[in-house]
Specification:
Length: 126
């Protein structure tokens, strides 16, 4: 399982990459593997205010439908338009082309409350 060292993780299996005052958000390799083949992604609306643990949308796979949760609070400032036509990018490249959205973070300090790679690895191995 791929757990990049430069990211932070939620216990709900989302990852964040800090880029200035924004974070790019996606689902982890662990999550995409558990879901199976992704066939549809319901993206959040640009401009939507999200709170920690609030819904960012849904990911539908051949196995199930799963909610995607906001790992930080803020405003959605961008979504990945490629996922509408190619939802399988979540499986093929969850940490690259499979990103879901970008959030302008309300409180950058909340990123420090997310799991570091070691803690996330321990969570997935438990």
């Amino acid at each position: 399982m791929n757990i990049p060292e430069d990211l932070r993780y939620s216990s709900d299996h989302e990852w964040v990459r800090l880029e200035g005052t924004r974070v790019r958000v996606g689902i982890t390799d662990y999550a995409q593997d558990a879901l199976g083949d992704v066939v549809f992604v319901d993206l959040p609306a640009v401009g939507a205010e999200v709170s920690v643990g609030g819904s960012l949308g849904e990911v539908e796979s051949t196995k199930s439908v799963s909610e995607v949760y906001a790992p930080v609070a803020g405003v959605v400032v961008a979504v990945n338009p490629e996922l509408s036509g190619a939802p399988e990018q979540l499986n093929a490249d969850p940490y690259g082309d499979g990103w879901i959205c970008e959030i302008e973070v309300a409180d950058p300090g909340t990123i420090d409350t997310l799991l570091d790679p070691g803690a996330y690895r321990a969570l997935t191995e438990a």
